[in-house]
Amino acid sequence: MHAPAHAFSGSSMVAAPLVPLVAPVRLEQLRELSTWMALDGQRVSLSRLCVDRVYALELLAQAHASDLEPLRELAVTLFAAFERGESRIAH
């Protein structure tokens, strides 16, 4: 199996940009979620969060159950974005 031509530049590998594919959210919001989750004692895979919808929704459920109010508020905001993304797909 060959890597796509754009994945390599000369002899060094170029990292692909991290783009949220699971919902119409900004990457900064996902980084903020990751930071708050860490403060709440939970590890987050940012790359998986960008591509695995089930994982992302499970994390949002955990965030919503947190004792940290800013984390709960962010979870509500991000979940709303996920719902908007779903409604675009369904129509």
Features:
single chain, 91 residues, mainly alpha, two-stranded antiparallel sheet, 4 helices, 2 strands, globular
Task: Set out the fold topology.
Elements: E1 8-9, E2 12-13, H1 27-39, H2 46-51, H3 53-64, H4 69-90
Antiparallel strand pairs: 1-2
Give the structure's gist in a few sentences.
With 91 residues, the chain is mainly α.
Q: How many structural domains?
A: 1
| Major sheet attributes | 2 strands, antiparallel
Distance between the termini: 36 Å
Q: Number of DSSP strands? A: 2
Strand order across the biggest sheet?
1-2
β-strand percent reads under 5%
Unreliable spans are 1-11
Indicate the mean pLDDT. Answer: 78
**Cα shape:** globular
Helicity, as a percent range? 55-70%
Please count the helical segments: 4
Order of helices and strands: EEHHHH
Cα-atom Rg, whole angstroms?
15 Å
What structural class is derived from the secondary structure elements?
Answer: mainly alpha
